[in-house]
Amino acid sequence: MKVGVFGLGSMGFGMASSLVRAGLEVFGADVNPDAVKRLHAAGGSATDLDAAAAGLDAVLVVVLNSTQTEEVLFGDNGVVSKLSPGAVVIMCVTVAPDYARKAAERCSERGIHFLDAPISGGSVKAANGKLSIMASGTSEAFAKARPALDALAEKVFELGDAAGAGSAMKAVNQMLAGTHIAAMAEAITFGITQGIDADTFLQVIPQCAGTSWMLENRAPHVASGDYTPHSAVDIWPKDLGIVLDVARASKFSAPLTAAALQQFVAASGMGLGREDDAAVAKIYARNAGIELPGSKSGS
Questions:
Q1: Domain count, the chain
Q2: What's the predicted TM-score (pTM) here?
Q3: Is 243 among the domain residues?
Q4: Is residue 145 part of a domain?
Q5: For burial by CB atoms within 10 Å, which of 43, 66, 171, 249 has the most?
């Protein structure tokens, strides 16, 4: 199977590496030429993805947002116009369900299958082929994409035969994930104001009912003062913004999500956008006038 991967960041590169490890022929494209060279060194094809497009069985889209997805798929040099009929687009980007539905329709007009397949699990699981994929699309799209899905995921949730269902489930997941990260930041900094240092917090709370996967994954970043990005702050204004747009269109009130969004917006405005999303704790620390591990005055 020949697969093109658009977007070789922390998630996309790990996913491309998993495809290579599974024996698939992988072609990469990224705005950063060094990322493409890195994929070549890891076993990816040295052939330019654009030149290989007509022979691809599948295209994996792992870019930042719907604007970049639109350019990759349907722009002036969009790949959809170059794919052969019967190929499948596997869109792993967090987008609004309505965009996923429209993208599927446009692909179908050209005889291209489309799988709405947002992902969850982080960069480590991406590199190990252990992601969770929330996918929806036709049975033909699933069948065509199956070798790639098997290489990428520990669990593929098949959520129906129409694009949009996968993105709707991802919106639910992001609502929870974003609010859990903000809640972790609020709790660990609140603990510090009460004389509970971050290490003690980590010894106790993961063993109690108030824990969450996000707390156990992100709180160690705060405790160590290491904000090397695994998932950046700037992802959350986008993703929680999508969640609130979808909620608003459905006349659904989501006040906890709105509050979490404002904390990530504040963190981005403070210049923390490219740091790990656990850096949202710095907003709480600044407001409380406390110091986090590895920092001064919460900065």
A1: 2
A2: 0.94
A3: yes
A4: yes
A5: 171
CA distance 33 to 39: 10
Tens-digit pLDDT string for the chain (299 aa): 999 999 999 899 999 999 999 999 999 999 999 999 999 999 999 999 999 999 999 999 999 999 999 999 999 999 999 999 999 999 999 999 999 999 999 999 999 999 999 999 989 999 999 999 999 999 999 999 999 999 999 999 999 999 999 999 999 999 999 999 999 999 999 999 999 999 999 999 999 999 999 999 999 999 999 999 989 999 999 999 999 999 999 999 999 999 999 999 999 999 999 999 999 999 999 999 999 998 754 44
Polymer length in residues for the chain: 299
Domain edge (last residue) among 134, 162, 190: 162
Active site residues: 170
CB pairs under 8 A, 24+ apart, for 64-68? Answer: 64/7, 64/93, 64/238, 65/93, 65/94, 65/95, 65/238, 66/93, 66/95, 66/96, 66/99, 68/7, 68/93
